[in-house]
Each structure stands twice: as structure tokens, then as C-alpha cells.
Amino acid sequence: MKKCWVFFLFFLPIAVNASDNGIIQLKDGDFLKDAVLSGSSGIVIEGDANVTIKNCIINTNKKIAVEALPGSGTVTISDSQITSQAGKGLYIQPGRTVNIYNSNISHCQEEGLDVRNAISGFITNNKFENNGESGIELIVGKTNLEINKNVFSGNGASGLALQFYTFTRDEGKIKLFQNGFEKNQKYGIDCSIPEGKQPPDYYWYESIKLTDNKFSQNVLGNIEKDCNYPGPVDEKDREIAKKTATEFENANIGLQAKESSSWEIIKKIWEFLTRNFDKTLQNLLL
What pTM did the predictor assign? Predict the structure, then answer.
């Protein structure tokens, strides 16, 4: 363990605990504010630790600029700029609560924010711009997030990449509203299955709620077709579409039942006539 110098914005340095490879370790209750980290520095947040990062500039050549290890603690990041020249800006591992707002997570070589499964919290009023891969990559299973008022622009893959994995088949609860998706090299919103295995029926539909998002000039389209959205529809439109589909299906089932019933009646008449053909013919001749 050695001391690593972290410069505050008014350039008065303080010493924090860091490992020999330049990684700063944040423990429960730590509050990192007004700091500038660059070069080989990076941040690892211990599992179950409640940590706040506020008004910091983090520009590192580490594979991960800020990593939150698996656990139940809350990570709050606000008013900060985060860049990784060699990999991800933020890597949030399972179980965490994460609240990210008023920040710029851009120009990372890989994803701006990589979120694993079973995450809760909110991501509000941030910019995810010009990252080498997606602005946010997110495993949907058991994740409960509100993502609103963010800008996803110019990312090398999609603005928001949603993923299904078989190890976490449970639906998520992800609300996406009032975000902007523009000029991303793939989709505004992508729904993918990296393992190649399909999710349960209605998985994407039940896991994702879209309201009042804006889309413009995304290279492959606004919303990838496997998301089962025809376009940037809002919640009201989705409910109308679902109701219409259900009514159509019920009507079709009813029609099939009626057709089946009519055919049964015709069959019974024919069977009666063939069984009583001689008697019926005699009656007709009288």
C-alpha cells in the first residue's frame, strides 16, 4: 500500500490510500470531492461500501476508471467527468444501488457505463458521448433503474445496449424517459442476446418502459427490432397496441370456435341423412 496524490481543483493535494498499481480504494463512508485523477490512477469501490464521488475529473489509462465491486452498497456520482483511455468509464457489478447525475461519461475506449444485473437506482441528466462502444451497456435481469434526461450521442455502438443472459432470466424494471439518442453508430436502443439464446416471451416488453424519448440519425435505426417496439412509442401507445393484439387474438379464437361448431352441425345432419336414406326417400316420393 502506498500514498497516491490526488489534486483538488484548487490544486492543494491530499494523500489517499492506493495500491502499488495506482488503484485508489474507497471504503464505506468515503466522500471523494473536487479531485482530479489522471494517468495510471483508477478507483475501486469495495463491496457493500456506500461511497460518494462529487465534482471530480477522472481521466485514466486504466481498463476501468471507476469500478464498484459486487455488494449492496450505494454508489453516488454527481457533477463529474469520467474517461478511460484504455477501457470502460464505469463498471457497476451486481447488487449495487447506483445514482449517477449531472455528469459527463464520454470518450472512453469501450463503454461509458457497464452495468451488470440486479442493479437499482437512477441515471439522470448525464452525457454519454463518443465512447468507443455503447454509451451504456446493461444486463436487464433483476435490474430496477430509471434512466431519464440523458444524452446518448456519437457512440461507436449503440446509445443504450440492453442484454439478456440465461443466468438471470428474471425480468427487469427499466424506465426510459425524456432521453435523447442521436448519431450512434448502431441503434439508439439495442436489445441483444450475447449467448444467442432467446429470452422468454414478452421479456423485453415487460422489462422496458419507454416514454417521450427522442431519436435522430442513429445509423442502423432508432430501436433494434428484437426489442419488439415498432418505433419510439410511449407507454399509452404500447398499451393500446397490446390491447388491440389481445382483442384480435380472442376474436380469432372465437371465430375458430364458431367455424368448428358449424362444421359439427353439418356433420351430424349428413350422418342422420345417410343413416335414414331409404326412409327419407320414401317420404319424399309420397
Answer: 0.76
